[in-house]
From TrEMBL:
Reactions listed under catalytic activity: diphosphate + H2O = 2 phosphate + H(+)
Identification of the protein by name: Inorganic pyrophosphatase
Keyword Metal-binding among UniProt keywords: yes
Lineage: Eukaryota, Sar, Alveolata, Ciliophora, Intramacronucleata
Enzyme class: hydrolase
UniProt organism field: Paramecium tetraurelia
GO cellular component, one term: cytoplasm
InterPro entries with a match to the protein in the record: Pyrophosphatase, Pyrophosphatase_sf
């Protein structure tokens, strides 16, 4: 994206974090993540695509809570018509609408109601507790099991079907980040 395209996009979607914030100059290895949901929350917050405000989508029906800080990578787009989701592991709960530099370590392939809904797994770049974590194999297997179980269970009482297919390492995650950036450019920049 060149400067002129970026300026036109910002004017069109003024101050909407999905469009106004860059995905990060070191992507796909380190990306900017915008947190929507704090680790431990039962509230499902989501960016309102039109206003750029954070809205309460619902309170989770099940007796579960988010196992990591959850949000999206700005200026990305996926087949589910949303920005690319990201889980950011961190030793603290990160406030909603906080911008976090996140080191990508893997991806969880998931299908939600028949649609591909991949979740990038990352660690907060500026958290010394995760300084040595560079790939999924560097985190305890219990962490990935907890993430998987959350996403398998969190919609059951809504009678919605979610399948966690597999976890893959950072190379697969990098590819997905790059594809979502390209899809975003095709969707939002082609008419500028």
């Amino acid at each position: 994206m060149n400067h002129q395209q970026s300026t036109q996009l910002i004017q069109k979607y003024a101050k909407n974090p999905w469009h106004h914030v860059h995905f990060g100059s070191d992507s796909p290895k380190i990306v900017n993540a915008i947190i929507e949901i704090t680790k431990g929350s039962k509230a499902k917050y989501e960016l309102d695509k039109d206003s750029g405000l954070l809205k309460l989508d619902r309170v989770l029906f099940s007796a579960v809570h988010y196992p990591a800080n959850y949000g999206f990578i700005p200026q990305t787009y996926c087949d589910d018509k949303d920005p690319l989701d990201i889980l950011v592991l961190c030793s603290v709960e990160i406030e909603p609408m906080c911008l976090v530099e996140a080191r990508v370590i893997g991806v969880m392939h998931m299908v939600d109601q028949g649609e591909i809904d991949d979740k990038i797994i990352a660690v907060a770049k500026n958290d010394a507790s995760y300084a040595g974590v560079n790939d999924l194999k560097d985190i305890p297997s219990h962490t990935t099991q907890e993430i998987q179980r959350f996403f398998e269970d969190y919609k059951k009482l809504e009678h919605k079907h979610v399948v966690v297919e597999e976890f893959k390492g950072k190379e697969d995650a990098y590819r997905i980040v790059e594809e979502s950036i390209k899809l975003y450019e095709e969707k939002f920049l082609k008419n500028l």
